[in-house]
Amino acid sequence: MTTAQNRRLRPAVAALMLGAATTLTTISAGSAQAVPLGPGCPGLYVLGIQGTGQSSPTADPLADTGVVGALLGPVVAAVPGLVQRSYLGYPAGFGGIVPGGGPDPYVSSVGDARTQLDAAARQITEQCPNTLLAGVAYSQGAHAMSAFARDVGAGRGPVGPEKIAAIALYSNPSRSPDSPIFPGRPGQTVPDPAPGTAGGAVSGVQIISTPTAGSGIDSSTAGYGALEGRVADICADADLACSAPSQASVLRFGAQLLGQANLNDPFAALGSINGLFHAALGEAWSTTILNDVTVGGGNVDYTPSQSLSTRMIEAADPRIPAPTPQDADLARARWGEITATVAANPLVLVPKLASQLGAAWAQLVANNAALADPNVWLHFAGTVAAHNGYALTGQLGSGIAWLTALAYDIGPRS
Questions:
Q1: Contact (CB, 8 A) for 389 and 61
Q2: Is the pTM of this model over 0.90?
């Protein structure tokens, strides 16, 4: 890879990481605000979540701004009597480094969005039991919305799947590997009808998007369960937030760390990232020693149940519980046992372990092969433009048609 190619991609990767994608953790403790509702109960209520830097806790819930506003504004204008909408105000931050975003780390910011979304869904369905819900979200907002949709589809969300008419995700950082437009429905382009409707208007809509390889920078393999066919996951080619190459585990590891870091100033960023990095390596070491190394009877073997890449990514993921202090003590004791066993029979055990660890290292290199391919770097050189271009390149048009058709199919509700 040439120096020039490195220089071209480095700013794009940095900007994308700071502007879009890493990881979602447990719901934050932020208080949820009531969403505007009325007059009367609409047939369809759409909840929008903007991307990084496009919202704030005090944002006007009815202002059609940002990428999501570019989709919902035309829908409301087309069917004002059939649909209501609001935007959930949340920090939309990335550790304080993104203009317009709050100071919260990405993880906390996404968690806050999810808090707002759960509360809003409950409020609307309680006040208007005949109203159906839709969700539209972009980038960081899509991270929260996709987690909501997965929980609802699995029957553990704040509302039942029969309450959800549609979920439209754009630049979703948790997009599953090589996901089709409708996850779980390869080849499908026409949305399923809203619950309780014949779907006459929706049947004439096609969600248009070029098939995109790769996955979200914090991809999830969980499906959408009962919502399959009503969840669309739109990803522009070369948008690193949602189409990161599969063989780039170091990129995902770094994304997990950045998502938790305090990036307000260079000194805070260095200290925060350094602490997170060392903590993740310590957790990965403990987990590997306890789960992937066997020792006993004068023998030691490294037989990994998961790759080193997976161990590192999971250690950096705040959603996965860290090893307990007791686990760390056990790992240290196991390490002492390993070193003593190897020292007692080095001529046999050292070559064998060197071979086993060499194979694991080769796998780690293979898991990052994309980062050594100049063509991959060139492909993602335009990632910032791809990430920011959903409204400019006409990719919202089919979403506008979908929600408008849903409003006609559902009709007025009391």
A1: no
A2: no
Structure tokens that stand for 311 in this block: 């161990």
The owner of tokens 């105000």 is 89
Q: pLDDT higher for 373 or 374?
A: 374
Strand, coil or helix: what is 27? coil
The CATH H-level superfamily of 3-246+383-410 is Alpha/Beta hydrolase fold, catalytic domain (3.40.50.1820)
Distance between CA atoms of 142 and 83, rounded to whole angstroms?
Answer: 21
Q: Length of the chain, please?
A: 414
Q: What is the pLDDT of residues 21-71, one digit of tens each?
A: 333 333 333 456 789 998 999 999 999 999 988 899 999 999 999 999 999
Q: For residue 347, what is the enclosing H or E element?
A: helix 346-366
State the pLDDT at residue 53.
Answer: 85
Question: CA nearest 117: which of 155, 163, 148?
Answer: 148
3-state secondary structure of 79: coil
The encoded tokens of residue 315 equal 């250690």
pLDDT at position 265 is: 60
Coil/strand/helix, residue 296: strand
What does the domain layout of the chain look like in residue ranges? Answer: 3-246+383-410, 250-367
Strand pairing report for 299-302 and 293-296: antiparallel
Angle of the 266-292 helix axis to the 325-344 helix axis, nearest 10: 60
User: The tokens of 42 are what?
Assistant: 């609409």
Residues 26 and 28: their CA atoms lie apart, in Å, by: 6
Cis ω before 177 (30° cut-off from 0): no
How many Cβ atoms from other residues are within 10 Å of residue 401's Cβ? 20
Burial of 219-256, coded b for 16+ CB within 10 Å and e otherwise, reads bbebbbbbbbbbbbbbbbbbbbbbbbbebbbebbbbbb
List of residues 6+ apart from 389 with CB closer than 8 A: 236, 395
Instruction: Please answer whether residues 264 and 96 qualify as being in contact, where contact means their C-beta atoms are separated by less than 8 angstroms.
Output: yes
Q: Say what angle helices 249-258 and 3-19 make with each other, to 10 degrees.
A: 40
Assigned token pair, 313: 């990514």
